[in-house]
Amino acid sequence: xxxxxxxxxxxxxxxDCKDLVTEVEFSARWTLVEGYHTLxxxxxxxxxxxxxxxxxxxKIAQRIAESLGKxxxxxxxxxxFAQLYPDLNLLPEGKNLSWHHLINKYLTTGEKKPTITKxxxxxxxxxxxxxxxxxxxxxxxxxxxxxxxxxxxxxSLCEFxxxxxxxxxxxxxxxxx
Length: 177
Prior knowledge:
single chain; mainly alpha; 2 domains
C-alpha cells in the first residue's frame, strides 16, 4: 500500500472519530441540562402541593440535596431553571448550552464569588498553625499538672492537636513544592 492511501485512510478515520467525540460531548452536556430541568420541574410539581409545602417549607431543597448527595445550591439552580424556563425550547441559546454556562449566564446575578488569594490562604494556615501550637502547649502543661484521669484526656487532646499540626504542615509543604 502506498503511503498516500494509508495517510488518506488514517485522516478519514480521525475525522470520523472527531465527529463522534463532538457528538457525544454535545449529547452529554445537553442531557445534563435536560436532567436538571426535569429535576427542577419535578420538585416544583411537589412544592405546588399545599400540604407538602407546609411539611417541608423552605427546607425542601436542603432535604432533597441531602437525600440525593448533591449540593443545596445545585438543587436551587435546578428549581430556578425550571421556574425561569418551563419550556426548554425557549432557551435563548437553544441546545448550545452546558449546565455550567447556563448557571453562570442565566441563573446567577453575575456577582463574583469571593475568592481568597494564595497569600491570604497561607496567612490563614500559618495563623492556624500558631493557634495549634499554643493549644498544644497549654494542653501539654495541663496534662503534666493534673491527675491521671484528666491527664489521659489532655494527652489525647495533645495527640489530636499534633495530628492537626501534621496536616497543616503537609498543606504548607505541598504548597512549597
